[in-house]
Amino acid sequence: MNCKQLFGITLIWVFKFDLFAESQKCTFSIDDPEWKNMWYLNNPNTNKYDMNVLTAWESCANGTGVTVGVVDNGIQDHADLNIDRNMNAGYTNKSKQGNPTRSRQSFWTRPISADTRKRQYQASLKHGTRVAGIVAAKKNGQGIIGIAFGATLVDVRIASTSVFETFNASLLTHQSDVIDVYSCSFANFHTGTKTYPLTANQENAFQEGTTYGRQGRGSVYVFATGNSGGKRTNLFRDSCAYDRLVTNRYVVSVAGIQHNLRKLPNGEACSAMMIAAFTTKPGVKKNRGAKVITTTDIGNKTTLHFNQNSAAAPMVSGAVALALSAKDIMHLLVNTASGDLLKNKNKKKFITNAAGFKVSSYFGFGLLDIGALVERSKSWELVPDRQSCHSTEIVDNPMGDGYKYLVLKVSGCNVTYVEHVEVSLIVNHQYAGQIQWSLISPYKTKSTILPGRILDQTTTMKLTVLTVQMWGENSEGYWKLEPKPAFRESLGKGTVKSARLLIHGYSIKKNSTLPPARQVPENWAGWSEWSECTVPCGPGNKTRTRTCNDRRNSRYCIGNNFMTVSCDNSECLDPKPHVFGTPNNATSQGAGSRTNECLSSSLLTSRCVEQCSNDRDCSVRQKCCFNGCGHTCEMSREYHTTETVRIPPDEDQTTQTVTTTPEKDQTTQTVRNTTEQDQTTHTVRITTEQGKHFITLLPFI
Questions:
Q1: In terms of pTM, does the model score above 0.85?
Q2: 72 part of the active site
Q3: Of the residues 72, 155, 243, 615, which is catalytic?
Q4: Which end of the chain, N or C, is more open, meaning fewer C-beta atoms within 10 Å of its C-beta?
Q5: Are 219 and 73 in the same domain?
C-alpha cells in the first residue's frame, strides 16, 4: 500500500513522571517466538544497527497507561493485540468490529456472495492489523512483541485509504481526551502533479488535538511521508512537501530506512522530515539472511511481509508518546536521534544548521533511538509556551533570468528559538510547478523547501510549505527565498504575487540562545534604463531594475530590486478616414476604396497578433494594422488599410478569373468567393508607394 504510510514509531509512554525514577530497574525475559527475528529493536550482531528498545524496557517503560489510536482501514481482533472495542470509530452501530453492510459492485457483474464479501472485508483489515502489532503487540509468549507492549489500542477506522482530500477530519480528535497518540498510516495519493493543502477542518482538528487532547497535555500525531519518491529521472517522482496533511507543524513526519541505513528506493524527501525508523523495501523475503519486518496479521497469524513507510510509522508512535506535551515530543526526538546515519555516504545528505543540529530532507534529524528518548525524558524540562511571528510580505515581485532571491525581514520577533518555519507562496509562472525553491536563514542555513516536479504543469502555485531545518536558530534578521529552474536551463519570467514567513518557536534567555545573525548588507548596482511605457498612448506603467552586487550569493541587499512608476505618453486619437475613391472601372461591377491612417506612436513595434474591431483599437492596443487588423506585418511608424465596397455580381454571373500584369511596385492576387449561387473571383491589387500599402479590389472585365 504505497499510498498509505504510517511512521508512528516507538510507543512507550509513561503516564506518571515518577515511573522514570533513576533507581527503578526492570529485568525480564522475552519468550515471544518471533523476538529473535526483530533485528530492528535488538540486533546482537557486532556493528549492526537497531533502535535500542531494550534500554527503555529495562527502565520499566512499556506503554502501560497509554492509549494509541491506529487510524487505518481497521484492525482485526487478534490474540496478540489489546484492543478497546468500546472506543471504536468509523463503524456502523450494528457491529463494533465494523462488518460491512454493503459492498461495491458494478452494474454489469453478478452480486457478490456473502462469503466473498466477508473475505474482502477481512483482507481490508490486513494493513491496520499489521500496524497495530508493531505498535503494541502484547508480551505474552505468542508471536511478536510490540514496542509499547503494555499500551491499549483503539481502532479508528477511516472509510477508505485511497482518497484523503476530503477525509473526515473529526477522526483526528476521536476520543482525544483518552487517546494519547494517533498513528496515521495513510497519506494523499502522490502522483508528481497534485498539491494537497491543509483543509480548514483538518487544521482545526490538529490544533484542537495538540492543544486540548490528552487531558490538556496535547495529543501526538505521527504520520508516514509517502512511497512515491525515487530517482530524479523518475517522471512520477514526488515529494512530501506538496502534501500538507503529512507535513504540517502539528505532526511528526517519519521516514523509513533499510537495515543498511540506506533510504528506501521510493522514499520521499521534504524539509519537514523529523525522524527516521527502520523498515524494508517492497519485495524483500526472509531468505539468504534478508532483513524483514515481523508483525501481527489477519487470521490470528504472524507475517514477515510488511514494509515501506507503513512499517516504519508504528515504530515511532510509541517512543513519541513519552514526552509530557506534543511539542516536547518533537524536542526529545530532535535531541536524542542517533548519529548512526552520519557514518556512511548518507553524510552528504545532511546539513548542519547554525544551532548545531544535523538534519536531512531524507532522514530528518536521524535514526530513532528509543532508549535515549526514554532516558532523556527523565530530566527533560518543559519548553516555554509557543509563540509565532510573521516576516514582511513580498507582493507582486517580478522574477526572471538573472533573478537571485527575495528578501524577507523579521524584526521585533519574540521567537529566539525557532521550531517550525512555514513559507506561504503565490507564484504566477508558466512553469511554476517545476521551480525549485530554497529558504536561507539569517545564519545562511539553506533548506530546499520545494524541489520542483517535472510533470507539474501548475502555472499559478498557491501553497504553504514547512521546514524544520532551522531548528534552534534565532528568527531575527533577513531571510532569503531563492528560486531556481529544476528542469530547464533558465528561470523564465513570472511574478511572485505574495511571499511571507510564519515562524513558530519560543523565547528563551539570552545566554541560552543564538545571538541575532551578523548580516552585512551588500550594495546595489545602478538602476537600469526605464522600460517603454506599457501602452503607446494614454496612462500606463514603466519599470526599471537593479542587481545586488552579491557574487557569492551570501549577503543581502536591502530594498526592492525593481521600481514601477506611471507614464502617460499622449492622448489616444481617433483615425481620420479618407473619402471613397472613384471605382476603378466605370462599369456596374467595380469597387471603390478609401484608406484609414493608423495613428500609432513611435513606440509601436508590435506585430499584428489579434483581431481588432477598428483602426483605433489597433493603435490603442499597440497592434499594427494592414489589410485589416489581425494580419501580420512588419513594424513601421505608419500603416494604411483599405476599406472596400463590393458591388455584387448578377445572379447569372459565371465564375471567371482575371489576371493582370503587375506594374512597378505592385502585385496582384486572386481572391475567390465560392458559394452555390454566387461564385465570384476577384483580383486584388496591392500597391506600395513610399512605404505605404494600398489595396484595390479589381472589377470583372
A1: no
A2: yes
A3: 72
A4: C
A5: yes
